């Protein structure tokens, strides 16, 4: 019995694996985020919606711990940040549609996320994985704070403070995006890859 438990504890997945516990949590977060955002539009502030948002956000921490324990995958490296984007940018979009947040920082952050996602998609075809870096994780944390604060009933009326957090998230989006693209350039140079070359098979 102990030998079986040890095998489960030491289970490692290959980079190409898709059906892993961490990836399952990532896809679950991605799928559940869509109906949550519609719910948020109808109920922008309240302890129940805030609690659901916290649970969704914490699932990112849990799947990250599982992935580091059982092995990170290329699937997770692409879809985990994507799930974060849907929750964060989607939350900003809801509050912008409600007139609570400004459209300019939302547009800047959305452009950053699209550019990074396109870079990840192209580089994955060249067998280059771009997982989230420390600055990117910090950016996501601040973004989620900026989305979550207006959901809390005591904080909803502190709009100017929440706008300050929003602009901080916007600044960190730009800085972390530049950091990730510099890292991507180094990866491309180290592997002597030229964008436009045929994709490896």
Helix and strand content put the structural class at mainly alpha
Q: CATH class, please?
A: Mainly Alpha
So what's the overall shape?
globular
| Quantity of strands, as a count | 0
How many distinct helices? 7
Main beta-sheet strand count, sense and barrel state: none
Q: Taking all residues together, what is the mean pLDDT?
A: 84
- The helical percent reads over 70%
Under the CATH scheme, the architecture is: Up-down Bundle
Rg result: 18 Å
The helix/strand order is HHHHHHH
Domain count: 1
Give the termini distance in whole angstroms. Answer: 42 Å
> At the fourth CATH level, what is the homologous superfamily?
CDP-alcohol phosphotransferase transmembrane (TM) domain
Portion in strands: under 5%
CATH topology: Four Helix Bundle (Hemerythrin (Met), subunit A)
Give the uncertain stretches in residue-range form. Answer: 1-9
Task: Please describe what this structure looks like.
- Residues 1-9 have low confidence and may be disordered.
- The chain is built from seven helices and no strands.
- It has 201 residues and is mainly α.
- Helix 6 packs antiparallel against helix 7.
- The chain has one domain (20-190): CDP-alcohol phosphotransferase transmembrane (TM) domain (Four Helix Bundle (Hemerythrin (Met), subunit A), Up-down Bundle).
Brief rundown of the structure:
With 201 residues, the protein is mostly helical. The chain is built from seven helices and no strands. Helix 3 packs antiparallel against helix 4 (74-97), helix 4 (74-97) runs parallel beside helix 6 and helix 5 runs parallel beside helix 7.
């Amino acid at each position: 019995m102990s030998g079986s438990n040890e095998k489960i504890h030491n289970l490692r997945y290959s980079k190409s694996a898709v059906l892993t516990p961490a990836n399952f949590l990532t896809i679950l977060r991605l799928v559940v985020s869509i109906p949550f955002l519609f719910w948020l539009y109808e109920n922008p502030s309240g302890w129940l919606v805030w609690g659901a948002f916290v649970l969704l956000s914490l699932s990112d921490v849990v799947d990250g711990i599982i992935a580091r324990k059982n092995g990170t995958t290329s699937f997770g490296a692409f879809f985990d940040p994507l799930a974060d984007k849907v929750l964060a940018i989607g939350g900003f979009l809801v509050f912008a549609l409600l007139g609570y947040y400004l459209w300019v920082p939302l547009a800047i952050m959305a452009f950053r996320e699209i550019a990074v996602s396109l870079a990840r998609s192209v580089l994955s075809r060249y067998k280059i994985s771009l997982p989230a870096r420390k600055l990117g994780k910090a950016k996501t944390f601040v973004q989620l704070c900026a989305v979550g604060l207006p959901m809390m009933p005591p904080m909803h009326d502190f709009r100017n403070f929440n706008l300050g957090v929003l602009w901080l998230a916007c600044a960190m989006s730009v800085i972390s995006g530049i950091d990730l693209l510099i890292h991507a350039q180094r990866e491309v140079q180290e592997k002597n890859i030229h964008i436009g070359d045929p994709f490896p098979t």
